[in-house]
Write a structure and sequence with these properties.
Elements lengths: L5 E2 L3 H4 L7 H30 L4 H6 L1 H30 L2 E2 L2 H16 L5
Helix pairs in contact: 2-4, 4-5
Amino acid sequence: MSKPVWVSPTCYELGHCWTPYCTKASTDVAKNVFTEAIKIYGTLYMMAGLIQKKGMGYYLKRFLPETLQSSIFLTINGTMFITMFCLWRRLVGFYLYYNVFICGIPICLFSILIENKSR
């Protein structure tokens, strides 16, 4: 087996080059991802309701909670990834070639717990 590739740049240089502050990067990502997720899931659930000919009761009772739940799932997934990316750098001090998997897999598993069980 070959040795892991060691990379020494900071999380600012690799993960969030628009701001040097990790907390600002996380909040920026959270705001942007949530805004886009509302647009995506709102449209998706609206179209699914129209195609499946769900009545007004669906839109009054379930549309908003389902849209918010899925949007929160996507927001947590995106926000926690950049947070874990920065946290890894602060705890360990370096990045590995496969660091994306080390940071991404636990976050994906955690965010899946929030998403609707039927999906």
